[in-house]
Amino acid sequence: MKNIELLKNLEIGEISKSEKAKEVKEIFNGTRRRIVEVKLRKNEMLPKHKAVEPITVLCLAGTGVFRAGKDLEDEQKLEAGTLITLEGGVEHEVVATPALNLLVTKFKED
User: Fold this and answer.
1) How far apart are the C-alpha atoms of 66 and 33, rounded to whole Å?
2) Which of helix, strand or coil describes residue 47?
3) Who contacts 16 (Cβ-Cβ below 8 Å, separation ≥6)?
């Protein structure tokens, strides 16, 4: 039985070169967690939305702003190494200033 599954070697600290302003790619989708890589460029944003499950957001590269709450009243600056967590059902948005690479983990119940 194989215990370790290599999902991807991530680019840390550098914004990947691409013409696309927004890229969202699922890296893993298992029974208890889902991992998604999000790349935003050219001041792109992920507009206000919410996840049913709790999430963590790890900034791999770039800079941006993460806002959360009903009126997006809470704000956290994102830069390489920033790790935040958010409970399920909380509305949030992400804005790249000017580019951002994120790793988002959604924790699912059985």
Assistant:
1) 21
2) strand
3) 39, 101
Domains of the chain are 22-107 (2.60.120.10)
| CB burial of residue 82 (10 Å; 0-12, 13-18, 19+) | middle
Model pTM score: 0.93
Where would I find the beta strands (DSSP E) of 3-108? 22-29, 33-40, 45-49, 55-68, 74-79, 83-86, 92-107
Which pLDDT tens digit goes with each residue over 16-56? 788 899 999 999 999 999 999 999 999 999 999 999 999 99
CA angle 74/80/86 to nearest 5° reads 35
* Two structure tokens written together for 73: 């009243």
